[in-house]
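On to our target:
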Amino acid sequence: MNFYFVDDDKNVRNILKILVTDRQLGKCCGSSGNGYDALEDVEALHPDIILVDLLMPDMDGISFVEKVRDISPDSVCIMISQVASKDLIAKAYEAGVEFFIQKPINAIEVEAVIRNVIKSLSMHRKIGKVQTLFEAEFSTRGKTSDSSSQSESFQGRLTGVLQKLGIIGELGSKDIISLITFLHDQDEALEQQTLGNLLSRFSENPKSVEQRIRRAASTGLVNLAHLGLEDYSNDVFNEFSNTLYNFEQVRREMDYIRGKSDRHGNVKIRNFLNALLCYCENV
């Protein structure tokens, strides 16, 4: 992973560089003391992870992150600041910040957050590659799933994910387990057929099954949003809000819960099921 640092305090930039290098978290591809120079570097370097200060002269961190989303949308931004205002933190997340770290910098906290970001980013990219492969060609993934022990291990991971999302008790969770396990065992992909046709192989009423799955997946989104509101650094929130769900939609649900929006977050069922399949096969 390539890192870029933006902070008007040179000492902070040096501390971050040393931390990333010494903890073998990645490579430092550049740094800057102001947002305008940093934007030029980001456009040329496209770093994987950017650590940026909230309060900087000329351009604040939130404005910087908003511009980064246009010029380097694949870059993940982590914001660092002494400010503890919930409103500012909320604005930072709305602008596109993935995580927020409070100053003074705590090396253990920074390392933990960065490792979570790396894990989430790696999984997100892996899922993206798999989905792109599916769209480009309807080829098999070449996995071997003949042994019963492998199947049991896969089902264990699948059940564990649904438990973390808090939806294992939902009626739709049984349908999700049956569907995902079938796709895994048969080496099939949702892109090869419509969801309705696939569900018709499990039930005489595929629309009812789809509605149950949709309700369960939506409940998982709501549960994640509540976790994020309670604790932005929650492990389950960090692990699944950027992999199984679209983080923009999770943020929208958080805004709805806070009363700042009249729109719920939305779940694309095919994307959710594909991501769940890929996650359980690759964890």
